[in-house]
What we know:
- It is an enzyme of class 6 (ligase).
- By secondary structure, this protein is mainly α.
- It has three domains: 9-91 and 227-263 and 377-404, 3-Layer(aba) Sandwich (Rossmann fold), CATH 3.40.50.620; 100-203, no CATH class; 278-374, Orthogonal Bundle (Tyrosyl-Transfer RNA Synthetase).
- It is 58% helix and 6% strand.
- It has 18 helices and six strands.
- The protein has helices spanning 9-25, 34-41, 48-62, 79-90, 93-97, 100-120, 134-141, 151-162, 170-179, 184-196, 206-209, 211-220, 234-250, 290-298, 319-327, 330-341, 347-374, 376-404; strands spanning 28-32, 69-73, 124-126, 148-150, 226-229, 259-262.
- The strands form three sheets. It has a two-stranded parallel sheet with strand order 1-2. Strands 3-4 form a two-stranded parallel ribbon.
- Helix 8 packs antiparallel against helix 9 (170-179).
- The longest helix is centred in the C-terminal third of the chain and has 29 residues, at 376-404.
- The radius of gyration is 25 Å and the shape is globular.
- The two termini are 32 Å apart.
- The relative contact order is 0.13.
- It binds iron/sulfur cluster.
- Iron/sulfur cluster (SF4) binds next to helix 15, helix 16 and helix 17.
Amino acid sequence: MRPTGRLHLGHYLGVIKNWLKLQEEHQCKFFIADWHALTNKYKETDSLKENIRQMIIDWLSCGIDPEKATLFIQSGVKEHAELSLLFSMITPKSWLELNPSYKDLKFNLYYQYLRDFLAGKQIKIIQTPPPQPYEEALEKSTGKQKSKIFEDYLREAFHKAFYNQKGIDFKGFKDVLIKFGIQKKIAQEVVKNLEEGDVGKDIDTVGFLAYPVLQAADILIYKADTVPVGEDQLPHIELTREIARRFNNLYEPVFPEPQALLTEEAKLPGIDGRKMSKSYNNAIYLSDDEETVNSKVLQMKTDPQRVRKTDPGNPEVCIVFDYHTIFTDSQTVSEINAKCRNAEIGCVECKKILAESLNNFLQPIRERRKEIEADIHRYEKIFEEGTEKARAVASETMSEVRKAMKLWQF
Ligand code: SF4
């Protein structure tokens, strides 16, 4: 896991919960991928150590157990870098250029730039999807088409332009912006900057392009047979298998071909209904205190059609209810379901029940967090010991690799 900041509930449900189960059933190695954090954040090293520390606290306070799994920090096992270097010698460049996540990350960077640029020109980006066709909604809401734009439409149009079969179509996108009501001059300027500016240059590095090779080394150096991943990571596991095959064919069969263990993606949205993410400022963190959780829950979007308490609601389109189904006991959930539909419960009351459920869930994590924070050096030591253990295994594999490749043995 890349140490890029505090963990939130989405991370817990999508990754940590699964790890807690896996550590009971397998010999697991979980590591803090600090070198991977540098692949696109190489300028932001000031916060790296603190992020690693926060990750140690987050993992341990959730119950990731150093007695059951090896926990370590990637950059402490230099053998990852050595194997990655050797793999880079045998990996065709085209395998990396075709890597889909490379393009996705580029899309996100460009899109973020576009949003920031428009916001800087006082063009308001409205996050709630309009209830009717775009043009109609704009006219009804403001009558001032030039100052507002709906996020959903903007993103969809930009996505179409970016993933155009004939390559990125920024020119066509400019026309779409103008159709959206953006002044021609502004549309021209933003498109020019996207085409010629510095956007995306940060990931135009060898390190970023080659990070799947480092990932393959991370996995294969422990001869891992299984890697728990989300669907978006499947191409990386396939690449790892291809690198292992290529190495085994060229030299000697050293590496097994690991299998992906598909983890279901967590369906927990952020408090505004979009994907939970630090950059959207819509996340509930594992380290949030009771008061913060209460206030975030009060801000949550509910069924947009339910204006008054006397209106019947629809829990199926309500984020608060999504959270209830995960964090509240099933009896209360079915009561809320019925009461909401019959307008027998108000949203504020419903949110208070949710805040209580979330605080009950987070309380034991908060208590462990306090203990760990009070004695942080002891827990950092646990990761250092884990790093030693991992290094012992990694260096055995490297001896085999050097022998297979007929390299000098030091
Ligand atoms: S009562 Fe609860 S489930 Fe129903 S709309 Fe309000 S917050 Fe959502």
